[in-house]
Amino acid sequence: MKKKSNISALAMFYTNYGVFFILLLVIIGASFCSDKFLTVNNLLGVINQNCLTAIMACGMTMLLISANMDLACGQAMVMANVMCALVLTTTGNVLLAIAAAILTAVIAETANGYIISYLGLNGFIATLAMKFVFEGIGYLLVGGTPIYGTPKITFLAQTQILGVIPILIVFMLICAVVTHFVLTRTSFGRYIYAIGGNKEAAQSAGINVKMMVLLNFVVMGVFVGITAVLYTARANSGQPAGSDLTFDAIIATVLGGTSMAGGAGMVAGTIAGALVVGIINNIMNLAGVSVYYQSIVKGVIIFLAILLDKKTRDTIMKV
Amino acid sequence: MDNILVMNHITKTYPGVKALDDVSIEVKKGEVHALMGENGAGKSTLMKVLSGIHMADEGQVIFEGKEVVIHSPADALKMGVSMIFQELSPLLDLTIAENIFAGVRFPRKRKGIVDWNKAYEKCGELFEKWGLDYDPKRKMRGLSIADTQMIEIVKAISFDSKLIIMDEPSSALTEKEVEKLFGFIRTLKENGITVIIITHKLDEVFAITDTVTVLRDGKYIGTKATKEITREEMIRMMVGREVRSEYEAPDYEFGPTVLKVDGLTLAPMVNHVDFELRRGEILGFSGIVGAGRTEAMRCIFGLDRPKEGNIVLNGVHLTIKTPRDAIKNGIMMITEDRKFDGLVLCRSIYENIVLPSTYRNSRHGLLDSKKEKQIVDEMFDYLRIKAPSDQTLANQLSGGNQQKVIIAKWLTMNPSILIMDEPTRGIDVLAKSEIYKLMRKLAREGVSIILVSSDMEELLGVSDRIAVMCQGRITGILDRTEFSQEKIMEYATDEQQLIHRAQNTA
Q: Choosing among B21, B39, B336, B347, which should be mutated to test the A contact, i.e. which has the most A CBs within 10 A?
């Protein structure tokens, strides 16, 4: 019978640090599966591969903390990616292209934020609807044909610092540090934890909840915009049929210990979560597992992450 | 008489807290047994162990002479133990009968189809047998807390419960409702059902119980027959030292009128509420539950928007659309339900205390943790908040400490008007008297306080004036010299007064 209080402490420990153990386990497991895994090149490659997911997940972490959800961010990113490539190929100005991409993403996410915050619609359904809107706009911008060749911007993804470290990793670290700072050291961070924890109490404490939620989406827009720019740089193209990172970002965030119920979460966990997903994908690729199986594995991981989130949360809150 | 229940050496530990430390208790068959103690004394925890919600770490439970192991509420129910919680959660959109049979006990026809006629019939019989007058087909929504509680008790009886535990059953009831409840408890007793009441109210212990057991800080202190114990003795057992729960009368002059509320209306609960509040004054609000007191206060704090009426603060007409507007003007409110909109339960005490003052303590949106830490430390000392650390999550605190955190939260904002809605509900004697002292202290320093309370003793003791509401109107305002329970009850229920006033305003 003595176990129960220990379980509660364990649950607390898991939500805070569990993902790092999972990361360790996955690394150990992966190194047994393939001797190619633990090479510097492969490791940097894996991290590099998942930088975009991780950056998007930084924004997602903030949204989930305030108990919000965005299923449209992946398509908003694709739309901004197309916009970036379009502006770059027509004007040839890199700065203008970056600005256009970020602005597009911010407008898109502000629309999401307004709908959820001021019109009071359910975030899941509303952003699911917006996802289709963004997808359509992405295609319309370029008449359905991808723009190939945006060489002017590729330096943002393909440079290597000191000749070894991919620049994307640096961008990812900067985004993570900024997110961590915002969450822990700013009043905005304090507010979104409070809003996610108890919206009514936050409101009664004088917080402008609607404005903060809107702001939260605007910040998400910035992260989506950055992701879009880097995506353009890495893919050397603008693709209206580009990959939707929404679920990768959500898995990384939830796996990283951020609660779907809001009120708790850390960005370090999110980054670790992104790496766990990345490594599992990597090892499946190295081991030659078919993409169909990979899809199933991904689904199961989301399921397990959410289940663990719920169980640990219940244990902690039930005193 | 035989013991129906013996709990031996029960111990229960949470991280950092020993909630129950070797507690033993004996309850005789057919008695009404009071379980008393301060907040965090372990009363609820002990009963939750008995009713299968918590598992004890160690200890033995003997029910009707047999040692039992209770793993879940279902086990407890099967055994004949039901618990009526302080906060009830009925299925609002289902009928009374459905609530009573909720679960797997609906009368059925063949093939598992519910026999509705029989269900309503059986439910009606139950009510008849116990002398209650409810329509089984009525929906739960709109029933008062008192009625909901009654139905909860009937539900417990329908399980053939031999022991019914009630956690603070009177905390949200008016005096009349309490009387009705007590009448019902006596009926239960006559029918051989044992009742354990968890309570803070000494009056209730003397009014209804046969035996009283006191816990303190998770330890067993003693059991006495109610007839053989005095008030003072009981308080001493509960707090471990002498407490004078004397109320302090104001020893200073009130300042000028600071708040003037004029014609505040939000149908149907608030009708033309007018009152004035002076600087340093504690204005009590009395009335039966549903008289519109909370609703009027919600309008003043911006949680609801009144249809009509003026709120004038220091001669300035205010437009309050949200709590944010109220707070900006120095009007703050400790709401009735601390879990609903008082605390962010999954965040730390620290964050809860500094939440409203975050913008004040930050520069350009950056937090000043040094300054915040200092504020939190001051509040810990000032209000004597009991917790392992300021990083403890708010949901791990006892009710009294949670309330202190909420008070601390507002004190950091230097309120000029503090509305306290049932501030001592579910709080122990010691914490209560601390809160009363604090109220007077704040008032002396120039804070004007509105106290909405259903606890008559508290209202009469703490308030400088008492406004009585009935059906959304203020039917009378009494000065300290005119205070009497009878007068308040008269205003709270007086229909003539209402008609008279309605004619005057028309």
A: B347
Going by pLDDT thresholds of 50, 70 and 90, the confidence category of residue B504 is: low
Residues 389-408 of B with CB under 8 A from A: 393, 395-396
Please list, in sequence order, all residues whose beta carbon lies within 8 angstroms of the beta carbon of residue A255, skipping any fewer than 6 positions away.
A19, A22, A269, A272, A273, A276, A277, A301, A305
Distance from CA of A91 to the nearest CA of B (A): 37
Does B268 sit behind a cis peptide bond, omega within 30 degrees of 0 on the bond before it? yes
Q: pLDDT band at A236, cuts 50/70/90?
A: very high
Cβ B29 vs Cβ B20: under 8 Å = no
Cβ separation B327–A206 shorter than 8 A = yes
Residue in chain B nearest A2 by alpha carbon? B57
Interface touch A197/B346, C-beta < 8 Å: yes
Decide if pLDDT at A214 tops 90. yes
Torsion of CA B158, B163, B167, B169, to 10 degrees: 60
Distance CA A82, CA A291 (A): 26
Q: What is the pLDDT confidence band of residue A16, given thresholds at 50, 70 and 90?
A: confident
Residues of B in contact with A67 (CB under 8 A): none
If DSSP codes are grouped into helix, strand and coil, which group holds residue B268? Answer: coil
What are residue B194's DSSP bridge partners? Answer: B163
Q: Is residue A1 over pLDDT 50?
A: no
Note whether B14 contacts A185, CB cutoff 8 Å: no
Q: Looking at the complex, does the CB of residue B10 fall below 8 Å from at least one CB of chain A?
A: no
User: pTM for this structure?
Assistant: 0.76
Q: Which of residues 244-283 of B touch A (CB under 8 A)?
A: none
B10, B162, B344, B446 from B26: Cα distances, Å = 12, 15, 38, 50
Determine the average pLDDT of the residues in B331-340.
92
On whether any CB of chain B is under 8 Å from the CB of A154, the answer is no
Give the pLDDT of residue A3: 47
The C-alpha atoms of residue B277 and residue B168 are separated, in whole angstroms, by: 32
Amino acid, single-letter form, for residue B265: T
B334: closest chain A residue by CA: A204
pLDDT tens digit sequence for B218-235? 889 999 999 998 887 887
* Domains defined along chain A, listed by start: 39-309 (1.10.3470)
Q: Does A5 touch chain B (CB under 8 A)?
A: yes
Q: ipTM value, please give it.
A: 0.89
Q: What is the pLDDT of residues B488-497, one digit of tens each?
A: 877 876 555 5
A209-235 vs A167-185: helix axis angle to the nearest 10?
Answer: 170
